User: Which sequence fits this backbone?
């Protein structure tokens, strides 16, 4: 049976484990920081010498760590893009604006083990010559912000933060900055604008790559909470050992947020790729299966922005055979290893590793209506295709969920979504379009039937019915 | 009524400003603090913030209108934010909001935040609160209530009535 592998979440649910520094120190806290700053420089085969900071940067690259926020980009590579020659200060921002629907992993770290995040942050700052860093936490987590501020005060008093950290001469300050309820602040350039005290309008890339022109037009690293926590473990374990966790190109562990129609919703840490979607949903160690008498209908595999997977789908995945040759193999949806690459090959993404399960009692039309309303509300309004298009999508799904659907709504939704994706400054356009495109493609019958049923009802003079909640299966008159 | 910020709060905000190399960065934190103190963000509060951070009032006003958490009018003493987004909706958050609204005599179909005439309660539908594993969730002022049952909702109302 598949099991959890608890690296980041090791102590989170332990009785007696508290968020204060004494508890963290009793559990080996800040040992990685002590180890890293005392580590020697490393001589490479070609005679080149790496400073201890460069060693950690190389180790993060060698560990294979990929960003846990959504894009899954190599963390070490992201760090390597930082412009270190500009002479400008380098900033680091921890993205704690956890707001992708379905995701609640960073919340657990912040509220139960804030020092694990802070240690990872200090290490990452030290490795990148950062003197000033911020934790951008979403406004709706006031308790988390309070806990982080307490933790930062503790860590300053212990000499792990502030001037001359552990006698190394290295100075660092970290501050907590609160957002105020806008989803777009999770987008790294929007977050930077917000931290500058502006509306969170994402910046266009190029030229505004944060690694070159980020906060205050200085080189900036933006990393997710979970990503930064992994840095501590890479130091503790060594890059090579860490890279043995998970699967090739999908190393380490990941915290999966499970919600929706399963018996045991919650957060579960796994070795990346060692557990399948089916195991996450059905195993008693994880989701514990569906409600009695229910069958699986769909899976939203990586936060609400990821393309939906339909029960029974089979995908062609590239697999390396024993002879080293790549070949295409049929993989049913429930056998998809939960990792970055497999889900990408299945045409979707593991995103923020939030899995939302839908059983056969759910209407896909109403479910999409719920999501489209989210994107219409959260579009920052900067780019026309997204500002107008997200609203049109919500209006069309609203029609379909309020008994006012039209036959052509299925193709209308696809048409609008196609005209948003790829035409916006940031990835929000795709985030709003992908659920729509995948829902109307994979559940076309359901959308078509709803539009047709509403038209027929209108023709017969039956008044429209209001269906506000996805808990109710659509009544096709 | 003239607008005045207590000196202790002003000192707190002055300290906050030192966290940033550019003053303007402190604006969101200013607005949070002022909203917490006054219950909402008045025109005077925006002008005061702008003056403190050496900005034009429009630079502050555009934040108040952009970020959903900021409000320009006082709300109820007990502010009930019910999560509307998918995972909570699947566990009945629409019904939960309806329960709050019906018990308080508010319109359960209205889109915006609604406040009871006695100023005790505001009920609002908000987007994902990042606690989908314990859906449905409700943020009551600053405290998160998880897996909120109809009985738990009644308890929230009872406590709000005593507040």
Assistant:
């Amino acid at each position: 049976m598949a099991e959890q592998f608890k690296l980041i979440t090791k102590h989170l649910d332990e009785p007696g484990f508290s968020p204060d520094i004494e508890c963290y120190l009793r559990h080996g806290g800040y040992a990685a920081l002590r180890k890293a700053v005392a580590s020697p420089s490393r001589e490479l085969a070609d005679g080149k010498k790496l400073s201890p900071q460069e060693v950690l940067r190389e180790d993060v690259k060698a560990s294979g760590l990929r960003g846990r926020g959504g894009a899954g980009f190599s963390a070490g590579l992201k760090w390597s893009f930082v412009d270190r020659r500009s002479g400008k200060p380098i900033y680091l921002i921890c993205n704690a604006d956890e707001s992708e629907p379905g995701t609640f992993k960073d919340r657990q770290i912040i509220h139960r083990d804030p020092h694990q995040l802070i240690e990872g942050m200090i290490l990452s700052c030290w490795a990148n010559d950062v003197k000033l860093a911020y934790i951008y936490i979403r406004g709706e987590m006031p308790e988390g912000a309070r806990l982080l501020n307490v933790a930062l005060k503790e860590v300053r008093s212990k000499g792990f933060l502030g001037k001359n950290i552990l006698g190394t001469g290295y100075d660092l300050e970290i501050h907590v900055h609160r957002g105020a309820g806008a989803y777009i602040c999770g987008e790294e350039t929007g977050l930077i604008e917000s931290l500058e005290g502006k509306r969170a309008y994402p910046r266009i890339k190029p030229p505004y790559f944060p690694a070159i022109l980020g906060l205050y037009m200085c080189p900036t690293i933006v990393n997710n909470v979970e990503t930064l926590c992994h840095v501590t473990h890479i130091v503790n374990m060594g890059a090579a050992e860490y890279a043995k966790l998970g699967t090739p190109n999908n190393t380490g562990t990941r915290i999966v947020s499970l919600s929706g129609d399963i018996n045991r919703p919650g957060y579960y840490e796994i070795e990346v790729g060692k557990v399948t979607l089916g195991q996450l949903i059905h195993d008693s160690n994880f989701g514990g299966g569906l409600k009695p008498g229910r069958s699986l209908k769909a899976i939203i595999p990586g936060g609400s922005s990821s393309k939906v997977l339909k029960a029974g789908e089979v995908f062609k995945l590239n697999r390396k055979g024993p002879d080293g040759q790549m070949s295409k193999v049929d993989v049913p949806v429930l056998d998809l290893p939960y990792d970055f690459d497999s889900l990408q090959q299945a045409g979707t993404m593991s995103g923020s590793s939030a899995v939302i399960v839908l059983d056969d009692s759910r209407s896909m039309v109403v479910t999409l209506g719920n999501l489209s309303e989210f994107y219409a509300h959260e579009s920052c309004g900067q780019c026309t295709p997204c500002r107008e298009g997200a609203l049109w999508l919500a209006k069309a799904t609203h029609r379909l969920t309020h008994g006012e659907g039209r036959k052509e709504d299925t193709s209308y939704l696809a048409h609008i979504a196609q005209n948003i994706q790829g035409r916006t400054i940031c990835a929000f356009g795709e985030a709003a379009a992908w659920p729509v495109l995948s829902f109307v493609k994979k559940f076309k019958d359901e959308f078509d039937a709803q539009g047709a049923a509403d038209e027929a009802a209108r023709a017969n003079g039956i008044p429209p019915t209001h269906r506000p909640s996805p808990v109710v299966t659509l009544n096709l008159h | 009524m003239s607008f005045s910020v207590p000196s202790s709060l002003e000192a707190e905000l002055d300290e906050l400003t030192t966290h940033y190399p550019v003053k303007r960065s402190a604006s969101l934190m200013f607005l949070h603090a002022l909203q917490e103190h006054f219950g909402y963000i008045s025109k005077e509060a925006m002008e005061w913030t702008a003056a403190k951070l050496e900005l034009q009032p429009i630079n502050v006003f555009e934040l108040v209108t952009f970020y959903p958490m900021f409000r320009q009018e006082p709300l109820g003493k007990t502010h009930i934010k019910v999560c509307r987004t998918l995972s909570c909706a699947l566990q009945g958050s629409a019904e939960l909001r309806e329960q709050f609204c019906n018990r308080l005599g508010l319109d359960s179909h209205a889109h915006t935040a609604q406040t009871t005439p006695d100023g005790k309660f505001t009920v609002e539908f908000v987007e994902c609160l990042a606690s989908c594993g314990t859906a449905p969730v409700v943020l009551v002022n600053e405290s998160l209530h998880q897996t909120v049952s109809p009985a738990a909702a009644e308890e929230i109302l009872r406590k709000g009535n005593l507040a």
Q: What stands out?
A: Confidence is low (pLDDT under 50) at residues 470-477 of chain A. The first strand of chain A starts at residue 42 and ends at 43.
